[in-house]
Design brief:
Strand content: 25-35%
Protein name: p-cumate dioxygenase
CATH topology of the largest domain: Naphthalene 1,2-dioxygenase Alpha Subunit, Chain A, domain 1
Organism: Prauserella muralis
Oligomer: single chain
GO molecular function: 2 iron, 2 sulfur cluster binding; dioxygenase activity; iron ion binding; monooxygenase activity; oxidoreductase activity, acting on paired donors, with incorporation or reduction of molecular oxygen
Family: Belongs to the bacterial ring-hydroxylating dioxygenase alpha subunit family.
CATH class of the largest domain: Alpha Beta
Number of helices: 13
CATH architecture of the largest domain: Alpha-Beta Complex
Distance between the termini: 36 Å
CATH superfamily of the largest domain: Naphthalene 1,2-dioxygenase Alpha Subunit, Chain A, domain 1
Keywords: 2Fe-2S, Dioxygenase, Iron, Iron-sulfur, Metal-binding, NAD, Oxidoreductase, Plasmid
Largest sheet: 8 strands, antiparallel
Structural class: alpha+beta
Number of domains: 2
Length: 430
């Protein structure tokens, strides 16, 4: 069966339906979805150009002139807090003169951004504020030559998103029930959350959608991360319950696995890894959350892990710590992953240290989990090249109420992916 290895020229219609096959108790994805360059081209146009994409967190640009530079949906952007408006601005990182990037550092603070090529200068609100020998250009529309803003920018609970499609639905509508899980993360911090300084960035030689699946896959943990579980058991942690919980579709392609934490959480579930001295502080944190939100919600905050997908490529893992992770394809078999650590403001130093230790031990680039997952995804991509098998099976749990170690949450992603790839009413984005 040949699908898109040799696609027709022009628009590929019905791509999603041709690659995702669904029956009452069977769900399959054709491997061309992970290996065809033509599919990747259509994903850029149909998915990344028309959905809300995560840019960064407001805490990264707290002061006027603070900025961060990002690749978002394959495009260079930068986010800066305006010196006059104090608002979050997101601009295309391209000089309106001849196109060179104007923000050339990953982060910092600046009153102006000057293009190094011809010295056109822009302020933090995007206004063109300086042009050498301006008179030589005649009567140009200088107001119209400011930095180009991204079509739509919005923030939810400090998480900043943008979209290249001006007609996209409002962000809160788009987030659907994913808002409830973002609220759980933010509400656990009375003074709000902040991104800690420092970024993990690495490449994986695999298709980007494999990391979507992996990030909300509950049942690979015991086999793939066997060393970590043995490490916890050696410290006295009871992990006999495994990954016990549910998988949920949250609407619009968003999904979550929500399960009782088999290990400790800095907010606020003690485990032997934290040491006996940590018990008092963790009990205090638990009591504060109970007072603010009641016993049931506090128990959900403290004792449950959440692996959350915000479609298409934002993962928030509220587990041993809170990691915020995005990933963008640079080729059909290559992605760049960027990850940050999110933590409560004004956190006590010993709690912050436990959080960082937990993050690095499991989720860090040299931790127990990340190298395992990289190896697993690259192994899948290598296996696809063998041929002989056309379809991946993602049917687990279709014959029963979905648990966290089933695949209902992955099917939620793939259904939205199929719908996006089938649309034929999209105009190209500038």
């Amino acid at each position: 069966m040949t699908l898109l290895n040799d696609p027709p020229s022009g628009l590929i219609t019905g791509t999603g339906s041709r690659l995702v096959a669904e029956e009452p108790e069977r769900f399959r994805v054709h491997r061309d979805a992970m290996t065809s360059p033509a599919v990747l081209t259509e994903e850029q146009r149909r998915i990344f150009d028309h959905n809300w994409l995560y840019v960064g967190h407001e805490s990264e640009i707290e002061n006027p002139g603070d900025y961060v530079r990002r690749q978002v949906g394959g495009r260079p952007l930068f986010m800066v807090r305006g010196a006059k408006s104090n608002q979050v601005n997101v601009f295309h990182n391209s000089c309106t003169h001849r196109g060179a990037v104007v923000c050339r550092r990953d982060q910092g603070n600046a009153k102006v951004f000057q293009c190094f090529y011809h010295a056109w200068t822009f302020d933090s609100e995007g206004k063109l504020s300086g042009v050498p020998d301006r008179e030589a250009y005649g009567n140009l529309d200088w107001e119209g030559l400011g930095l180009k803003r991204v079509a739509r920018v919005a923030s939810y609970r400090g998480f900043v998103f943008c979209c290249y499609d001006p007609d996209v639905v409002e962000l809160e509508t788009y987030l659907a029930d994913a808002k409830d899980y973002l609220d759980l993360v933010v509400d656990a911090a009375p003074a709000g959350m902040e991104i800690l300084r420092g970024t993990n960035e690495y490449g994986i030689d695999a298709n980007w959608k494999l990391l979507v699946e992996n990030s909300i896959d509950g049942y690979h943990a015991v086999s793939t991360h066997d060393t970590y579980f043995k490490y916890l058991v050696a410290l006295g942690t009871d992990v006999s319950g495994g990954v016990d919980g549910v998988g949920r579709s949250l609407g619009n392609g968003h999904a979550v696995i929500d399960y009782r934490a088999p290990w400790g959480r800095p907010i606020a579930k003690w485990e032997p890894l934290f040491g006996d001295a940590a018990r008092v502080e963790i009990d205090r944190l638990r009591a504060e959350l109970t007072e603010r939100f009641g016993e049931a919600r506090a128990r959900w905050m403290c004792e449950h892990n959440r692996n959350l997908l915000v479609y298409p490529n934002l993962i928030i893992n509220d587990i041993q710590a809170v990691t915020v992770r995005t990933f963008m394809p640079v080729a059909v078999d290559r992605m760049i992953v960027t990850a940050w650590e999110l933590a409560p403001r004004n956190e006590e130093p010993d709690v912050r240290q436990r959080r960082l230790d937990s993050f690095l031990t499991f989720l860090g680039p040299g931790g127990f989990a990340t190298p395992d997952d990289v190896e697993a995804l690259e192994s899948c991509q290598q296996g696809f090249a063998s041929g002989g098998v056309e379809w991946n099976d993602i049917s687990r749990g279709m014959a029963r109420p979905p648990a966290a170690n089933d695949e209902a949450q992955m099917r939620a992603f793939w259904r939205r992916w199929r719908d996006d790839m089938d649309r034929d009413d999209l105009r190209s984005m500038p």
